[in-house]
Amino acid sequence: MNARVHPREALLGAQAGAVVLPVCDHYSGVEARMRKSLQLQQELIEEFGACVFDVTLDCEDGAPVGGEAEHAALVVALASLASEKARVAVRVHPVDHPVFDQDVALIAGKAGKKLAHIMLPKVECVEDVVRACKAIDAAGAAHLPVHALIESPAAVHRAFDIAAHPRVQSLSFGLMDFVSAHGGAIPSEGMGIEGQFTHPLVVRAKVEISSACHAHGKVPSHGVVTEFKDTKALGRAASRAARELGYTRMWSIHPDQIRPILEAFAPQAKEIDTAAGILVAAQAAEWAPISHAGKLEDRASYRYYWQVLERAHRTGRKLPPEVAGWITGDK
After folding, report:
1. Most CB atoms closer than 10 Å: which of 2, 41, 74, 263?
2. Residue range 203-209: average pLDDT?
3. Can you tell me the mean pLDDT for 229-247?
4. Dihedrals φ, ψ of 168, to 5°?
5. Rounded-to-integer distance, Cα 188 and Cα 6, Å
6. For the purposes of burial, counting CB atoms within 10 Å of the CB of 185, is it exposed (0-12), middle (13-18) or buried (19 or more)?
7. What is the spatial distance between Cα 326 and Cα 331, in angstroms, rounded to a whole number?
8. How confident is the model at residue 2, as a pLDDT?
9. Average pLDDT in the chain
10. DSSP states of 127-183 as a string?
């Protein structure tokens, strides 16, 4: 194989089309917090040279009852101010909510070109995704991908079908609604920062969602940790989500959670250096197997290490100069 072939093309093949997203998805629904979130996003873009977290403007929990249209108009106005490098999304009301069509007509119709995606809450089946996409398309935003929030045992059961839909980029896990849907069978500790990683039914749901996403090249997004004042505990939870359960993205509900999530999902400096060394040697060998530090490395491990470098970039880590151009497109 020609050594000048880009690593993504040489190594991933059909997987090169798999969805790649920032590792943090930050939610806010109150005007002052939405504005602050967008400002913080721009500051981190300037700091890291890349958009390291999405901002999702929330209509479902943010809009006051009776004021849904006004809130949607505010969301449109804020999204329209986003910079070219920014990634702004919107969570609309569920597809069976009376204002869902109004949300989509206003938001996708007027701000669709500025949005990264639309988050669909309380998705129960793939038919909900189909219904939502028809509404989004009718609003003139057929280019927009959707993300689905899985919040019930039945939805977990159908996660693989939902993840398979071509417009779906990501599945998120809605912990609170999932626990409450069990009628008290899962204790309240199952919603806590420790219990959500130990209760068998909660862990099983998380693994099912993660597996469904990986089966279809989509992004599993870990849900809310409500103990936002304890950033160390949040960091440990994010690390468990990434390293134990296979999640590659996580929700933030407070600005102080963003950097701990970035840190938890980022590769360590040593792993970045190892990945760079192996891939430089692999490219020189035209992607044939090599011996590196006394170990055999081949295309399977090359793919892994390439994904390490991509994740490092998405989390604002500094890349060794010999591989940085691969990510930025200069090499």
Report:
1. 41
2. 98
3. 94
4. -80, 125
5. 49
6. exposed
7. 5
8. 45
9. 93
10. HHHHHHHHHHHHTT-TT--EEEEE-SHHHHHTHHHHHHSTTEEEEEE-HHHHHHTTT
Q: Which of 296, 321, 295, 297 is nearest to 309 (CA)?
A: 321
Helix (H, G, I), strand (E, B) or coil at 215: helix
Q: In angstroms, rounded to a whole number, what is the distance separating the alpha carbons of residues 331 and 323?
A: 8
Q: Beta partners for 172?
A: 149, 221
Q: What DSSP character marks residue 265?
A: H
Alpha helices in 158-268 (DSSP H): 159-164, 175-180, 200-215, 231-243, 255-265
- 232: how many CB neighbours lie within 10 A of its CB? 8
Which tokens in the block code for residue 196? 């959500």
Cα–Cα separations (whole angstroms), residue 299 to 7, 92, 296: 11, 42, 10
Amino acid at 112: G
Q: Which residue carries 């509404």 as its tokens?
A: 135
Report residue 17's pLDDT band, with 50, 70 and 90 as the boundaries.
Answer: low
User: In this structure, are residues 40 and 258 in contact, taking their beta carbons and an 8 Å threshold?
Assistant: yes
Question: Domains of the chain by range and CATH?
Answer: 18-265 (3.20.20.60), 268-328 (no CATH)
Question: Model confidence over 166-188: pLDDT tens digits?
Answer: 999 999 999 999 999 999 999 99
Q: What is the helix, strand, coil percentage profile of the chain, to 5?
A: 55, 15, 35
Cα(38)–Cα(306) distance, integer angstroms: 30
Half-sphere exposure (Cβ direction) of 327: Cα atoms closer than 13 Å: 24
